[in-house]
Write a structure and sequence with these properties.
alpha+beta, Jelly Rolls, globular
């Protein structure tokens, strides 16, 4: 399976926060160098992360690490229309080594854990829905503070599960090398 390669955050931006609406989602299986937090407010379908295919419903909250192949698919699966908020950022969006400092150990651990993908369930996703949706309306400086606030909350919340098997990423990398 080929992976579509995407680059999202331009050099003049620290990160991207956007609200999106689609009639359906059939975006190809893809990866990008940015970390990604996706909150699906309305829709239902399949979430594909690495070697895992699972169902998702509205108020689905995930975090994907850099270069982790993933997609959501809704076309022909019932509730096709998608309304979502997406946050995308590089690990060093606040400068090289920023998250290596002891003050941000929980965020560094979160970023490392997201390399396999994290799905937030139960009360966790409900707790963060308001904070994530509010980022869309904030001014640029407030979005930086808001994103840090969200990332600080994640490690202390329960109801999470990780994807895929670690060996899958090695196999997929080998499959997608030229030659």
């Amino acid at each position: 399976m080929r992976i579509f390669r995407e680059n999202i955050v331009s050099p003049e931006n620290l990160f991207v926060v956007k609200a999106e609406e689609f009639k359906f989602n059939d975006f190809p299986f893809h990866s990008h160098p940015e970390y990604e937090i996706i909150l699906i407010l309305e829709s239902a379908g399949q979430r594909i992360v690495g070697d895992s295919i699972t169902e998702f419903i509205a108020i689905d909250l995930c975090m994907f690490g850099a270069n982790l192949p993933h997609t959501f698919y809704t076309k022909g699966l019932g509730n096709e229309a998608v309304k979502q908020v997406v946050i995308q950022f590089h690990e060093n969006f606040l400068g090289p080594g920023f998250f290596d400092r002891k003050h941000f150990k929980q965020i560094k651990d979160l970023l490392q854990r997201s390399s396999q993908g994290i799905v937030f369930t139960g009360q966790t996703r409900l707790t963060l829905t308001q904070k994530i949706t509010a980022l869309v309306e904030k001014n640029p400086a407030e979005t930086v503070i808001g994103l840090l606030d969200i990332c600080i909350c994640f490690p202390f919340l329960r109801n999470t599960r990780s994807y895929p098997a670690p060996d899958f990423l090695t196999i997929l990398t080998l499959m997608n090398q030229p030659g």
